[in-house]
Amino acid sequence: MITEPLIFVATSDIAGKLRGKALLTRHLKDGQAPEVGWTPTNVQITCFDGIAESPYGALGDLVLVGDMATRALLDFGDQGPIEDFVLGDVLHLDGRPWECCTRSLLKSALERLQSSAGVTLFGAFEHEFHLPHREGDKGEGYALSAFRSERQLLETLMASLAQASIGPDTIMKEYGPDQYEVTVKPTSGVAIADQAATLREVCRTSAERLGKTLSFAPLVEPGGIGNGVHIHLSFRDSKDRPVAYDAAGPHKMSALTGAFIGGVLHHLPAIVAFLAPSVVSYDRLIPHRWSAAFNNLGAQDREAAVRLCPIRTFGDRDVAAQFNFEIRACDAAASPHLALAAIVLAGVAGIEADFPTPDVTAEDLSLLPDADLAVRGLRRLPTSLDAALDELDASDTVRGWFPDGFIDIYLAHKRDEMRTLAGKDDAALCAAYQAAY
């Protein structure tokens, strides 16, 4: 059968999807960035393929320019087609970043971090996903037997990540039935989100080659174990030295780290609409589910919105290089670029305002009255997508971080997604998101 190799140029859109167009690989010269036309109203295609109200209508043209540094070129050795795609930036025809390009928004946020603090972001996304239910599966959290049953897929997946130039780290059977977790090596700047977006597609295509499907949906069944995305972050200076750690700082945080986390926690009730952007996301963000229900900082606390991760001190280990914190209120319905942009902008706001390092909590916050929480600058995160969107809508500060009109476009997009789901029961909601993600 004759074929013509194609390269797909993709943007990570605000539905958390990779969308784009393909062109003939042979038309590219060495090192040439692939370019395809793009339509402004595409930004309003929801995860369910409806089109929310758009300010652009049928008007306008854009260009999607691929970044060859992000290329994922996968040969599974199964005589099937080669997987070949790149991530890119959506630009105006004169080359300016488009106001709704999530990758461009992240680049702008990282430039602001560099300008304000003189540091580069360093980190990685940690993903959980579900595989189809196996007959008789009782969960077998972390068990070798459950790992063994999917060893072929998991080894294929890790080999695929390496082919895609993503540093595979660990993979395991998670606690929930059918649930697994994959981690990758950290990287710098926009590549942190590029890796996350690429990883999701590499996982999907690896499963498809073996006749399986997997889902990153935040919740696949009512009351079940949800799939989170944990974003591990630290900072490097101009000489690539770790600067998030300070042995004399509170809980070993540098002043920079403390101010950044303070900004994230202060603005988290508004930006969680970017981090947990599905209707079912908020069935995860409740107390005692090992996710995040309050805007708090915890030390090695898996119930905290921001968690200080453990440091191993035995052996010949660089303590400063290990130090990182993780954002735990995110899931894979979010665009990794948009979620990370919001986190960075909130953190930079904390740095620019010289926020004090937050206190570390060590108790069950769900047992405390709201008044006691408020005295400590703590509050319950929104308990529904609707409430989270209202928080975002009302925040003039967060609106000011983004280009004019972007927040209203985002709100229209997500509210249309909610209208699509009106009247569905919990099981139908979970099924819809499981299929979408």
Chart the SSEs and their pairings.
Elements: E1 6-12, E2 18-24, E3 35-38, E4 62-66, E5 72-74, E6 83-91, H1 102-117, E7 120-130, H2 144-149, H3 151-163, E8 168-173, E9 179-184, E10 187-188, H4 191-209, E11 229-236, H5 255-275, E12 297-299, E13 306-308, H6 319-322, E14 325-330, H7 336-352, E15 360-361, H8 370-375, H9 385-394, H10 396-401, H11 406-420, H12 426-436
Parallel strand pairs: 1-6, 12-13, 12-15
Antiparallel strand pairs: 1-2, 3-4, 4-6, 5-6, 7-9, 7-10, 7-11, 8-9, 11-14, 13-14
Helix pairs in contact: 1-7, 3-4, 5-7, 5-9, 9-11
Main features:
Creatine Kinase, Chain A, domain 2; six-stranded mixed beta sheet; 33% helix; 12 helices; nine-stranded mixed beta sheet; alpha+beta; globular
Average residue-wise pLDDT: 96
Q: In terms of per-residue confidence, which ranges show pLDDT below 50 for 5 or more consecutive residues?
A: none
How many distinct helices?
12
Number of strands: 15
Kindly state the percentage of residues in helix.
25-40%
Class by helix and strand content? alpha+beta
Distance between the termini: 32 Å
Indicate the CATH class of one domain.
Alpha Beta
CATH architectural category of one domain: 2-Layer Sandwich
**Using only CA atoms, what is the Rg?**
21 Å
Form type: globular
Strand content: 15-25%
CATH topology annotation of one domain: Creatine Kinase, Chain A, domain 2
- Quaternary structure type: single chain
The ordered H/E elements are EEEEEEHEHHEEEHEHEEHEHEHHHHH
Characterize the largest beta sheet: strand count, sense, and whether it forms a barrel: 9 strands, mixed
Q: CATH-wise, what's the superfamily of one domain?
A: Glutamine synthetase/guanido kinase, catalytic domain
